[in-house]
Backbone:
């Protein structure tokens, strides 16, 4: 028998080996990388903001200047999400100013107000001669500094001034984008038709507000209910043409060699969309835009715009800016094909937004119906063995299908379902098709007779699909039912919270059930004492398998190049450590569990430190920077409050409550035909079933406590674990029925029964 705690030592040693092999060399290379120290401007940039502009507005006939700019430069869809569901023009300009999500608090979603000009009263002093000041700037600056994003408005303008440059704003909104820490721009021109070539050549940074598209919606007004009056296609096309003419004026007047950045800075109503992003200049040839913030070809974020402007000016990006400079991915496609692809990107985002919330209702409601049918069927099994066999077999198939559905929802992203005339029915059929395929594979071979192997097939496929996806660019995570969307802009790569929960539970169940093979070699039949009776060699092999799967799971979930998931590492590490101990028959005390959680925190902090030393840190690296600056507690508090607020997500909370009730009253209580529960019988047929369930619940509970999605994490964990446990329990009854070992439960008076349910 292994020495007490040996399995824990193996696991910890493996974690240390992974850190030594992966983190230290990377950190050393990051430490030797040259830092950007340029403080002198060596470029020229003009940022053209066209609030509301979409790729569906761009055509060779309607917008020839933008069409030509797209053909000569790099293009992408722009996620403009700031602090609210829909972004207003002033919010977009302030986000450019700060390089962080910003807002105009308590303001109407209207066009930016006119700036304060020289000679007009100003609470912050007179504007420079020929310049302007953004109205209400002190309140704007204070408000944004106090949000959870701690946005520093004026950061872009301050960086330009610190390097000896000057700023030009054309149009009212541009003052909010190019203004410095005091809201000032050095030169101001009301509109593009008043700007001369000398004006364009005066400053290194120019911001231009082209508001024709958004102005069309302002002109349309709202109805008696306060809803936006729709703008006809004809009027929107006319507004886009007017904006294009103003863009053409800018392109004609700017000096040669100027980098042009076009951004559809805001939404035009309550429904968010992906907007236009175009870059032309040094390094931006025909192709698609991407950035380190999205890692998706053809997709960029609004906060990236600030980083891009600073890079093109040759200036170092301040730490307060969170974006990444736009990069060009060369494409040989024609302009028409690129525009069509970018328009299709928004169609996909709109389609998934329309069904994503409904999917959770349908998924959990379907599982609730499944639970009810299973409970009724198990309570009313007839005396005829054939009838009982058919009921059990049908219940098992439906349970496996329910367990396969979450993984199938990601595989559905392989099909362009959103292009169908009726995308929602096509999506449902696609998910059901992949779920049916996974269930068919799980029941196709001789492994279908096992209690755990069909579930192992489903969990292994689910974990493998999610792992390979995040290791190859996260294409299945984006615009997926259980993934994320560019419209929300919470994530663009790696694991979202729902996907992390699904991946972690699938990995734990897979690791536990794989361990059945070495443990079973030493006994002909499993029994309740199987783990204790297994040999030292079998236990050592099982622990090694758990450690290997655990290390791979932590690496896939936590490394910034792949999953980049902060809270996931904290939850996965103790769950796998628990699994290693339970597989060998060891007891997990609260003290040991606490130590495992501390190890998870230490591991994720090590990854954060390593990532903070890279040239372009992710949110994990920025957390380490916040920790060193003393601002980490604000991040923790914001996430903790979000976790508590998640209890109000009724689709998830109700599903979680129903799963718990089902787990106890159906799986954990004795059935009519057995003197023990379904779970207890499954435990007798599989040595690792109990550790698998407990550790799956552990990763869900810990993940709930350390992630801002809160109860969503545990609900998703149950959506996979509960159906598979039901399938295993039902199969155990089938085996008893086939072998003739099924014994009806004694009919004792309920008040005389002292039996306690098996947990």
Residues:
């Amino acid at each position: 028998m292994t020495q007490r705690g040996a399995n824990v030592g193996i696991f910890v040693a493996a974690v240390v080996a992974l850190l030594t092999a992966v983190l230290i060399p990377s950190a050393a290379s990051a430490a030797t990388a040259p830092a950007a120290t340029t403080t002198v401007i060596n470029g020229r940039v003009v940022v053209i903001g066209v609030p509301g502009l979409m790729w569906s507005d761009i055509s060779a006939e309607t917008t020839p200047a933008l069409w030509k700019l797209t053909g000569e430069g790099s293009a992408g869809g722009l996620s403009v999400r700031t602090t609210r569901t829909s972004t207003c023009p002033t919010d977009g300009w302030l986000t450019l100013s700060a390089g962080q999500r910003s807002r105009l608090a308590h303001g109407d979603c209207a066009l930016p107000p006119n700036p304060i000009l020289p000679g007009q009263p100003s609470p912050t002093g007179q504007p420079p001669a020929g310049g302007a000041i953004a109205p209400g700037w002190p309140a704007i600056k204070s408000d944004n500094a106090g949000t959870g994003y701690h946005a520093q408005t004026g950061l872009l303008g301050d960086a330009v001034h610190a390097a000896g440059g000057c700023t030009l704003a054309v149009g009212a909104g541009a003052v909010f984008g190019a203004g410095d820490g005091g809201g000032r721009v050095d030169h101001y021109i009301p509109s593009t038709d008043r700007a001369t070539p000398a004006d364009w050549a005066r400053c290194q940074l120019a911001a231009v507000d082209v508001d024709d598209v958004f102005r069309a919606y302002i002109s349309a007004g709202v109805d008696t209910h306060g809803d936006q009056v729709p703008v006809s296609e004809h009027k929107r096309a006319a507004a886009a043409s007017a904006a294009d003419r103003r863009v053409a004026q800018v392109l004609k007047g700017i000096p040669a060699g100027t980098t042009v950045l076009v951004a559809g800075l805001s939404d035009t109503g309550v429904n968010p969309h992906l907007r236009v992003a175009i870059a032309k200049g040094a390094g931006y040839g025909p192709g698609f835009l991407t950035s380190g913030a999205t890692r998706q070809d053809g997709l960029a974020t609004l906060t990236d715009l600030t980083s891009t402007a600073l890079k093109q000016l040759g200036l170092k990006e301040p730490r307060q800016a969170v974006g990444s400079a736009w990069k060009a991915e060369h494409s040989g496609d024609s302009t028409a094909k690129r525009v069509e692809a970018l328009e299709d990107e928004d169609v996909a985002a709109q389609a998934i937004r329309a069904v994503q919330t409904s999917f959770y209702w349908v998924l959990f409601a379907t599982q609730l119906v499944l639970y009810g049918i299973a409970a009724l069927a198990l309570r009313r099994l007839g005396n005829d063995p054939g009838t009982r066999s058919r009921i059990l077999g049908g219940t098992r198939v439906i349970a496996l299908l329910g367990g396969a559905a979450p993984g199938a929802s990601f595989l559905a992203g392989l099909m362009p379902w959103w292009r169908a005339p009726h995308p929602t029915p096509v999506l449902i059929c696609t998910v059901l098709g992949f779920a049916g395929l996974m269930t068919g594979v799980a029941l196709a071979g001789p492994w279908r007779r096992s209690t755990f192997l069909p579930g192992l097939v489903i969990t292994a496929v689910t974990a493998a699909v999610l792992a390979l996806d995040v290791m190859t660019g996260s294409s299945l995570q984006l615009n997926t039912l259980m993934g994320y969307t560019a419209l929300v802009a919470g994530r663009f790569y790696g694991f979202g919270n729902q996907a992390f929960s699904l991946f972690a539970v699938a990995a734990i169940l897979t690791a536990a059930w794989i361990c059945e093979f070495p443990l079973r070699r030493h006994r002909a039949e499993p029994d309740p004492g199987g783990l204790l009776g297994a040999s030292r060699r079998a236990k050592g092999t099982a622990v090694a398998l758990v450690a290997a799967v655990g290390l791979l799971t932590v690496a896939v979930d936590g490394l910034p190049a792949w999953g980049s998931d902060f809270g996931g590492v904290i939850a996965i590490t103790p769950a796998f450590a628990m699994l290693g101990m339970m597989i060998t028959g060891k007891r997990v005390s609260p003290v040991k569990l606490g130590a495992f959680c501390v190890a998870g925190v230490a591991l994720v902090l090590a990854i954060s430190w390593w990532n903070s030393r890279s040239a372009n840190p992710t949110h994990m690296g920025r957390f380490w920077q916040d920790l060193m600056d003393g601002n980490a507690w604000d991040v923790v508090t914001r996430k903790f409050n979000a976790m508590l607020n998640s209890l109000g997500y009724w689709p998830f909370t109700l599903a979680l409550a129903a799963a718990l009730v089902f787990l106890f009253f159906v799986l954990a209580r004795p059935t009519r035909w057995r003197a023990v529960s379904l779970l207890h019988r499954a435990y007798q047929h599989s040595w690792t079933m109990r550790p698998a369930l407990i550790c799956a619940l552990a990763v869900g509970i810990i993940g709930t406590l350390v992630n801002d999605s809160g109860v969503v994490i545990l609900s998703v964990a149950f959506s996979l674990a509960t159906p598979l446990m039901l399938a295993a329990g039902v199969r155990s009854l089938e085996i008893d029925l086939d072998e003739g070992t099924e014994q009806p439960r004694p009919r004792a008076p309920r008040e005389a029964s002292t039996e306690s349910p098996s947990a």
Summary: The longest strand covers residues 74-79. The chain has 26 helices and twelve strands. Residues 1-38, 524-529, 743-759 have pLDDT under 50 and may be disordered. The first helix runs from residue 6 to 32.
